[in-house]
Amino acid sequence: MAKAKVKKVKVTQIKSGIGRLKNHQACLSGLGLRRIRHSVIVEDTPSNRGMINQINYLLQVEEA
User: What is the CATH number of the domain that holds 24?
Assistant: First the structure.
């Protein structure tokens, strides 16, 4: 059986998480982001997409 290719997105933090709501800070760490201009590539799953949508004002998102 052929494996289905998993979609991925590149997420870059463009604003600071300091002074944000605790659950927004938790989303940043859940995505693996540590500092401004730090980028990670994550799978495009519903859980990751939910975290991205919740803190979209802190992020830049592109397809990877």
Answer: 3.30.1390.20
Q: Can you give the residue range of the structural domain that contains 26? A: 9-63
Residue-wise pLDDT for 20-53, tens only, equals: 999 999 999 999 999 999 999 999 999 999 999 9
Using a 10 angstrom Cβ sphere, with 0-12 exposed, 13-18 middle and 19 or more buried, the burial of residue 28 is: buried
CA distances, 43 to each of 8, 21, 46 (Å): 4, 24, 9
Q: Are 55 and 30 in contact (CB under 8 A)?
A: no
Number of domains in the chain: 1
